[in-house]
Amino acid sequence: MEHLLTIAILLPLASAFLAFLLPAKKPGAIRALALFATGVSLLLTLYIFSQFDRQDAGYQFVKSIEWLPSLKVNLKFGVDGISMTLLLLVGIVSFCGALVSHEIHDRQKEYYILFLALTTGISGTFCAMDMFFFYFFYEMAVIPMYLLIGMYGSLPAGKHGRTKEYATMKLTLYLTAGAVLALIGLLTMYYAGGKTFDMVELKNNLRLAGSTQKWVFACLLFGFGFLASLFPFHTWSPLGYAAAPTAASMMHAGVLKKLGAYGIIRLALPLLPEGARHWVDLLAILCIFNILYAGLAALTQKDWKFVIGYSSVSHMGYVMLGIATLNVIGVSGAVLLMFAHGVMAALTFSLIGFFYHQTHNRNVPDLSGLARKIPFIGVCMVMAAMASSGLPGFANFASEIMVFIGAWHQGSTVFRIATICAVWGIVVTATYLLWAVRTSFFGPFDEKWNMLKDATTLKQKFPYAFLLAVLLVVGFWPRSLTDIIKPSVQRILATNSHRLAQMEKQ
Amino acid sequence: MNPVWIILFAPLCAAAIITLLTRKAQMLSALISCAAIITGFVLTLQLFAQQGNWMSPEPLQWLVVDNIVRIEFGATIDRLSILMLLVVTGVGSAIHIYSLGYMKGDPGFSRFFACLSLFTFSMLGIVLSNNFIQIFIFWELVGVSSYLLIGFWFEKHSAAEAGKKAFLTNRIGDFGMMLGVLLLWTNTGTFNFAELPAKIAAIPSCTLGLIGALIFCGAVGKSAQFPLHVWLPDAMEGPTPVSALIHAATMVAAGVYMLCRVSFVILPSETALTLIAWIGGITALMAATIAIAQNDIKRILAYSTLSQLGYMVMAVGLTGITPAMFHLTTHAFFKALLFLGAGSVIMAMHHEQDIWKMGGLWKKTPITFATFMIGTLALAGVWPLSGFYSKDEILLLALEHNKALFIMGAFTAFLTAYYMGRECFVVFFGKPRDKHAYDHAHESPWVMTLPLVFLAVLSIIGGWGSYIPHFLKPDEHAAHHDAWKGFALLLVPAAGFLLSAKIYLKADASDAPVKAALGRAWTWVENKYYFDELYAWIIRYVQGTIAMLCELFDRWVLQRLGIGGLAGTTSVAGKTLRLLQTGNIQSYAFLFGLGVTVIIYYVVVR
Questions:
Q1: Any chain A CB within 8 A of the CB of B43?
Q2: Of the residues A343, B63, B116, B373, which has the fewest C-beta atoms closer than 10 A?
Q3: Residue A58 in 3-state DSSP?
Q4: Are B296 and B352 in contact (CB under 8 A)?
């Protein structure tokens, strides 16, 4: 049983090594291997989810392999409710990403190797119970991403006068800088916690003075904030997505971005309670900028991918606001929103990829009336836009309303204002998304797009329909996930307040 | 299984089945959709017949976090919801059947019925909701299904634009509503309608007033009250049955229904009540004045709807929950009738909507003409049709509480008779203005006229014996007004009809005399007081400028200085920027090295 989790995480990486041995002349076999690896690991994840004990707030399916005994480094995986939810997200998005990767024709071998390594990198980070491997897998995710964008990406010429190389370099620099910043915080914790990388041990050992906590928390918050595209460290994000190939945008906006928020929830919240309390007000203010400022910037964009890029910056504002509440409903809402937004972003990017592959143009005003020619994609895009603007029935609504309630419940004036801005944010989101959908999919059909072909076979439709179905199922029955998220969040917050109480006693 | 769940979920199932399975079989799709709503109607009639022995089904726990948040999915069954269920399923059934004829031959026939069913589901959800979050969920779903229906002919610019406008305008209202709900929740700790009334008393009165006003925002959006009324006339871009459904029986009525459902929040607060009453009164009068200068057969009805909704909202503001629901019901009958009648005229004239191209149609379309006249008289409030009873209740309520609102209401009633007279006389009387279209005009098939007759009968008898108010409040005798006051008020519509007959009931009628008499005022009402232009200006210049500033800041300040800022010192910034411009992989290694240096430094120092 315990092995299943490890297999689900490492299977894509193992397949990447296997693909390395396959001849590059047989791209079909490599693609099949990638589909097999991501598909099986999705099925395994679903099985683990079905076996997951919903009463137990702690880690389950724990498996530890000794790695470097001298440094007390272990390859140790386990899932609690939060990791479980995000592991499901990785499984879903990576499988759909592999499915829509058929648009890649050149250097397929390298592409799938990188894609598979990326998948393991992300799921490894979500499930690692050891800080060393947490960081290791994190870096393992960033490097393939750099190569995927640099080698397979595209950025329409003249877009802000930037090339895809610029976008890639910027993205990587930002993410690495963030990682370095976070590393400083992590190492401080490593030494203060009795030189252990084990997260559970660390939790028991770590004692940091309030003032130290403040700057360590800042390192983690802003370090991971880079990745979560926290204002003002977000500028890599729209540009990077715009340059990335479809599946890389899906993985990046859908999953990789969530690593930042995950790191804060997993490491910063429980271990640095004092620091957390010090920074939440500022964080809430930054979230207002994320939500409204990025939303307004999205209003002026013309390129579909830039619209969605800014939109995802805006949505990460809701996630961070949920985290900043430090209460069960807000943080649970943030975790659920990470899932919902991940699926939704993957859906939107895959749909853009679908028509961009044929039109080679994704400038919103250049497209018109596409819904007549590609009705299936049109319907999915309308639904994705609705999901993104927080329409009930989709998972996004359930999670956003939890964030709203949590932030309002927090009670301080800053959070009240942030809530008002966040609620207004869904009006802004609806404005730019409906504009984009209305302009490119509705209105009179432009004959120059006559060559477009819709997704007609089940095989073509599957990834889009699957992602939509996930959003709808969780939207109709959010307790399918909140019931496992809530106990784990409660546990983390209990650690947080317990520590705070201890510190006050001293 | 409780029949309520069948009533609620049958349309959703129909929408799902049509979308996933039967999209290609058009007639089958339509029949599934009709069957779903008619089943709902029959089951509602059954519930209605039980008279008071209702059992609300056990609610589902939809979202539970600790003890602070508990969101249910339940159903409230009481007199209010049963009446509303009857209206939605009854009038809705008539509109579904009518659509079989009206939408015949449209390539999106199946899609139309799927959206119609989705809309019905959302609306029934609002009616049955037992807590604020649930009502908000369905509230939003009504918004999206109206978006799909108004923009049904999405290849038309105006239709695509109108759908978007409806959705966004509603969203603005929902923004206020959401905040109101959150504020209410902080003060009471519950969302449930059943638990709230007991906890309202503890809320300080100014907070309660704010809550009432914020929740009212939702109704302002959905029921198209001033100043968020602009979406409704544009929504006429949807197919005519949609106009009938959205503007008569369902969506716009949802706002008023919601106010009645949560009246426990509104009634205790004097501030909220005053605001609501005045917004209603202003909307009623403003919309009626705009209606006198419109030329589109459906737009006149759209402004008339605004105006009637104004009456209902005003009634709520004057604490008249029962009169508001009474007028909502009768209005659903005759306004659905009028819209469907207008649709029949439009079909007869081969999709011509300008009343100045019609004329003399009474000979060609006798059933449509007769039923349209019944609808007109009912709307104007002529005895003994249903509108007379319900409108009088509201006007007499206003006379009792607020003289200024009474005068506004009475003047609105005068204008109502006047503009409806204008529409009828120009469309059905006089000489044909477009000879060709007139010669080819024909009466609609029975699937369309039958719903007209059904609704006409309801429009006649709907108000008799004050049955509806009695049903809502069985133990309370309706406030007994002097009968003579009601009949004296009949003079108002009579004057309106006479004036319009004098101007428009002749062969060569035109707006010229009115234009001359009103002067500048005519230009203002013809242009709807320039609200659309004002809002377009705000969106373009205020929102547009802020958005542009954000974008410029992002592009020129953050993107340029960002990397410098994060590195902290200028020298590092310079190096990083230089590396960035060379764009090679070494820079990655550089930063990695930097990280290692920092670690080593840190380790050594410690």
A1: no
A2: B373
A3: coil
A4: no
Q: Quick check: A297 and B547 CB within 8 A?
A: yes
What pLDDT is attached to residue B564? 43
> CA A57 to CA A71: how far, in whole Å?
29
Tell me how close the Cα of A4 comes to any Cα of chain B, in angstroms: 30
Q: Across-strand partners of A74?
A: A66
Residues B103-116 have a mean pLDDT of: 88
Inter-chain CB proximity A235 and B554 less than 8 Å: yes
**Which amino acid does the sequence have at B93?**
S
Q: What are the structure tokens assigned to A149, written together? A: 């964008």
With a cut of 90, say whether residue B432 has pLDDT above it: no
- Assess whether pLDDT exceeds 50 at residue B567: no
Highest mean pLDDT (candidates B114-118, B387-391, B535-539, B544-548): B114-118
CB B256 within 8 A of CB B316: yes
ipTM of the complex: 0.88
Residue A41 to residues A45, A86, A114, A254, B374, Cα–Cα distance (Å):
6, 14, 17, 17, 67
Instruction: State the Cα–Cα distance between residues A122 and A112, nearest whole angstrom.
Output: 15
Q: A405 — contact with chain B (CB < 8 Å)?
A: yes
Using an 8 Å Cβ cutoff, are B355 and B429 in contact? no
Contact check, Cβ <8 Å, A300/B551: yes
Nearest CA in chain A to B550: A297
Separation between Cα atoms, residue B191 and residue B198, nearest integer Å = 12
Q: Is the dihedral of CA A73, A77, A80, A86 positive or negative?
A: positive
Q: Is A194 on the interface with B (CB under 8 A)?
A: no
By the CB < 8 Å criterion, does B370 face chain A?
no
CA distance to partner chain A, nearest, from residue B504 (Å): 38
Interface of B with A in 171-200 (CB under 8 A): 171-172, 175, 178-179, 182, 185-186
Residue B437 structure tokens: 């279209």
Check CB contact of B600 with chain A, cutoff 8 Å: no
Q: How many domains does chain A have?
A: 1
**B481 by DSSP, 3-state: which?**
coil
B603 pLDDT tier (thresholds 50, 70, 90): low
Partner residue opposite B160 with nearest CB, options A191, A296, A442: A442
Residues of B in contact with A458 (CB under 8 A): none
Q: What is the DSSP letter of B357?
A: G
Helix axes A395-410, A375-388, angle to 10 degrees: 10
Q: What is the pLDDT of residues A104-134, one digit of tens each?
A: 888 888 889 899 999 999 999 999 988 888 8
- Chain B residues with beta carbon closer than 8 angstroms to that of A226: 566
For tokens 């008499």, name the residue.
B517
> Which pTM value belongs to this model?
0.89
Q: Quick one: pLDDT at residue B588?
A: 66
Say if CB B234 and CB B166 are below 8 A apart.
yes
- In chain A, residues with a C-beta closer than 8 Å to the C-beta of B172 are 427
Q: Which long-range contacts (CB under 8 A, 24 or more apart) does A422-425 make?
A: A422/A287, A422/A288, A422/A291, A422/A317, A422/A318, A422/A321, A423/B175, A423/B178, A423/B179, A424/A292, A424/B175, A425/A291, A425/A292, A425/A295, A425/A314, A425/A317, A425/A318
> How does pLDDT run across A337-394, given as a tens digit for each residue?
999 999 999 999 999 988 888 888 888 888 888 888 888 898 899 999 999 988 888 9
In chain B, positions 393-452, which contact chain A (CB-CB < 8 Å)? none
| Residues within 8 A of A (CB atoms), B 443-502 only | none
- pLDDT for residue A96: 93
Tokens of A397: 């609504």
| Alpha-carbon torsion angle A32, A35, A41, A42, nearest 10 | -150
Which of A143, A403, A405, A412 to probe the B interface (max B CBs under 10 A)? A405
